[in-house]
Amino acid sequence: MKGIIMIIDGMADRPLKELENKTPLEAAKTPNMDKMAKIGINGIMDPIKPGIRAGSDTSHISILGYDPYKVYTGRGPFEAAGVGIEIMSGDIAFRCNFSTVNDGGLIIDRRAGRIREKTEQLASSLNSIPLNGFEDVEIIFKESTGHRAVLVLRGNGLSDKVSDADPKNEGKPSKKVKALDGSLEAKKTASVLNELVKESYQILKDHPINLERVEKGEPPANIILPRGAGAVPDVLPFNEKYGLKSACIAETGLIMGIAKMASMDIIEVKGATGGVDTDLESISNSIIENAPNYDFLLINIDGADEAGHDGNLKEKVEFIEKVDNIIGEVMNIPETYFILTADHSTPISVMDHTGDPVPIVINGPEIRVDNVNEFNERAATKGGLCRIRGSDIMNILIDLMNKSEKFGA
Questions:
Q1: How many other β-carbons are positioned within 10 Å of the β-carbon of residue 156?
Q2: Which of 325, 355, 404 is nearest to 44 (CA)?
Q3: Alpha-carbon dihedral of residues 190, 194, 197, 201, nearest 10 degrees?
Q4: What is the pTM of this model?
Q5: Are 202 and 219 in contact (CB under 8 A)?
Q6: What is the pLDDT of residue 89?
């Protein structure tokens, strides 16, 4: 028996007046997801705990059966691992955005117009730049998907106890990074970051790629905003934890990094952008092609989350419908327990993650099919799984696959 967990990032939502009090998932035409609900067992899932606003990182850590309160030191190390940086003990890693700042120093686009191309040239100009007064600190900077990037600081006397530079909203300047404790290491790291943010603008504002973007009327990627500081965690390999040969198919460096930290194989997919323009057919083909080679696949598809963060209702509904087209293909993989869920809610009305539970359905041999006939947030509440947590999923899957050990005599 095989297991697949497919996570549609940020798919869950809240009812909207524009949809006659339906959620985007309820409003979308999803015949394959509904078929899964009819022949499966359904429920709702709190990625971490009820009411906790999970990040994509902490929710995936929980769903894979790790305790995010112990494993999670910050998002940076996972992003760094995901883009192929060989992080070392003592390194401090950050996730970053390429962003747009105006002449007055205000952030006018946190994602630089969802920049998609040539970010490797921008990253190259920042990689290993010397900072005055901090010559003992090595700067390792690498692009990720879209507007995302990764920063690693390497050197003596550094700390992850620092705040973010990202103000999280447009119309504000970048935030001054501050030490979160009184240590000299944290103060030094904060100073390094403040100098780096300032220097990034000086280097990027007149970069040929940005001059070209301005000429085209596109927002320049003229500053970096580091956030999510973290030290490298110690993680028990997933295959050792569960006795499975596992792999991950994901679109973003973050999710690939989590899988890599857990020593899972990473399967990269051409055309996977992490946005609503991603090549879903390529993702589907990759799942079908690789399923026979592994006991377990973790799949992450990200576009619904992007639409939720942008507050774009039309795009979210349309993307859910596009994802539904590939669900039928995955359902046809033989002798497989197929779990479909989301990692958190990203409501259109909030444009950020919320603590609302998400729907979950499990298909496979000898499943105790319930009476739910649709896959969405409200229908799932009537299902046989009832309300579970993300940390329950792997236990349920391993038991269904008859690979669990009895607890007690």
A1: 9
A2: 355
A3: -170
A4: 0.82
A5: no
A6: 79
| Distance linking the first and last C-alpha atoms of the chain | 26
Residue found by looking up tokens 């030490």 in the block:
179
Q: Tokens 């009812």 appear where? A: 15
> Angle CA(251)–CA(269)–CA(77) in degrees, nearest 5?
40
With b for 16 or more beta-carbon neighbours within 10 A and e for fewer, the 340-369 pattern comes to bbbbbbbbbebeebbebbbbbbbbbeeeee
Query: With helix as H, strand as E and coil as C, how does the chain read?
Result: CEEEEEEECCEECCCEHHHCCECHHHHCCCHHHHHHHHHCEEEEEECCCCCCCCCHHHHHHHHCCCCHHHHCCCCHHHHHHHCCCCCCCCCEEEEEEEEEECCCCEEEECCHHHCCCCHHHHHHHHCCCCCCCCCCCEEEEEECCCCEEEEEEECCCCCCCECCCCCCCCCCECCCCCECCCCHHHHHHHHHHHHHHHHHHHHHCCCHHHHHHHHCCCCCCCEEEEEEEEECCCCCCHHHHHCCCEEEECCCHHHHHHHHHCCCEECCCCCCCCCCCCCHHHHHHHHHHHHHHCCEEEEEECHHHHHHHHCCHHHHHHHHHHHHHHHHHHHCCCCEEEEEECCCECCCCCCCCECCCEEEEEECCCCCCCCCCCCCCCHHHHCCCEEEEHHHHHHHHHHHCCCCCCCCC
Rounded Cα distance, 363 and 41, in Å: 7
pLDDT of residue 15: 98
Residue 384: exposure state from Cβ atoms within 10 A (0-12, 13-18, ≥19): middle
pLDDT tens track for 351-390: 999 999 999 999 999 999 999 999 999 999 999 999 999 9
